[in-house]
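Notes continue from the previous slide.

Worked example: a multi-chain complex. Inputs as given:
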Amino acid sequence: MFQPLDPLLHSELRLAVMSLLISAEEAEFPYIKEQTGATAGNLSVQLDKLSTAGYIEVEKTFKGKKPCTICRITPAGQKAFEDYIQVLKTYLNV
Amino acid sequence: MHRDSKHKAKLTLSAEEKARHQRVSTQVKRSESLIIKQIKSTTMEETKNMTAERSLEIITEQIEKSRRAVSKTTGQSLFVSGLCTMGMAVIIAITNFILINHASGGLGHLLWLVLPVIIWLFMRKYNKEREHTPVSLVGSMVAKTWSTFAWFVIGYFIIALIWGFVAMRMLQPEEYVATRIEVTPVIVLLMGMAITITGHILKQRWLIIFGIVAGLGCFVWEHFNMGATTVMLLSGQPHPSLSFAAIASTLPCLTIFIFAFVGLMLPGWMLKKQK
């Protein structure tokens, strides 16, 4: 019997964002947008969902005079990602 | 009668054709829906039917992208470091060559202490210009490798300088030569190790090869005084003359120059150009 995969992470864009943030200390919004190839609107929605779940923290700051959004993964997010990988392994028989 | 049978045959044929048409159209529809499914799976949309394989693919892809971004930044750092080191080697060689006539040929080597500052200034300018690449685990591992290398080299260089200064005044010339700390072979060996470790972290096989070849090659060349021996053989003199001493004092610069080209600039340029 397979364990269910975390529905919040089992989405292409959210999983891509989490995969990017898991190996980075923090990442700016334009960088995540460029790496995932998502639209700004869609990415904002998905980041909000991850932030509401407590998987990432979003810091809105300024870089000079320009607004800058910085995202970083939280310990809860790291745990959720690790659990997701563990369950994924059972699906793939790894 | 004959006409009727022909007409019936035509009718049955058209029925067969209709069935075939239907089969073909259902096949086309199936393949269309398959293609649409494939397109949907390749775009970053919210899908509930994402397979485990696709999940793994996304994770691998993003980690690989992050590694590539770090590789490019590391490439730029290696390239700039290589260029600065090569330039500095030329300046020090010229300085030593000029100063040898004033009996202080090795004094130019003190300029090596300025090199980290020059590289840092160039990299600071570059980091301001480029877009923000996040500090990743891979990036911080590369940075830590090079900062460890820098601390060891600067420390070793200062120890060698102090010991050289003290030993020259306290010991006999033969003792001084025997106890002298060789700087260049150890530095190229350490630098070769740092390049090889960077290659391992970035999973760039040729960077590993460049590090090993440049590090060990230049270490052997410098440790066994192969440059000095070559010059001595070419000049045909058993004992070093002033002109030989002038050339010999610039030989470590030649080693560093070759090393910086093979071990830093070339791999840096290749990393930068990598797609």
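Summary box: Residues 35-46 of chain B have pLDDT under 50 and may be disordered. Chain B has one domain: 65-273.
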